[in-house]
Design brief:
With 135 residues, this protein is α+β, with helices and mostly antiparallel strands. It has two helices and six strands, in the order βββααβββ.
């Protein structure tokens, strides 16, 4: 970043004039992260939860499927919504599909967003994000 101008701020304190020169910074990048809607549990992206989602998730966890599961879109894979993608998510999908276990938390069954913040304003939840280079 480079300063593109200077803003002068004047204060009148007890009959004395105090001035500050504050640089105005140029924004060098016009990029931001945009949330995308998704269905929790739909790892394959076909809007359904089935055995294909278990397979994609297994391949990802085995380290052989980096191109089919986007690291910026792990919300669908976090079936049990514990902010981790691990074998427990596969177990939960199996439980849901074959033993009528609990369905995933929202967003499910309809597409939606997982944009939650904690008490400090930090993002929680894995969600689904896309880097947008334009404003
Ligand atoms: Ca699917
Ligand atoms: Ca999880």
């Amino acid at each position: 970043m480079k300063a593109i101008a200077t803003l002068t701020i004047l204060f009148l304190v007890t009959s004395s004039l105090i001035t500050f020169a504050v640089p105005i910074w140029e924004v060098s990048s016009r990029s931001f992260w945009e949330p995308l809607p998704f269905v929790r549990g739909d790892v394959s992206g076909d809007t359904r939860i089935n055995i294909a989602d278990m397979i994609v998730l297994l391949e990802y966890l085995a380290g052989g499927n980096g191109d089919r599961l986007d690291e910026n879109c792990l919300g669908p894979a976090d079936f049990n919504d514990d902010n981790k993608v691990d074998i427990a998510d596969i177990v939960c999908i199996m439980d849901y599909l074959f033993t009528q276990g609990q369905p995933p938390e929202a967003p499910y069954p309809d597409e939606g967003y997982d944009i939650r913040t904690d008490t400090k304003g930090e993002m929680v939840g894995l969600g689904c994000w896309r880097l947008n280079e334009e404003l």
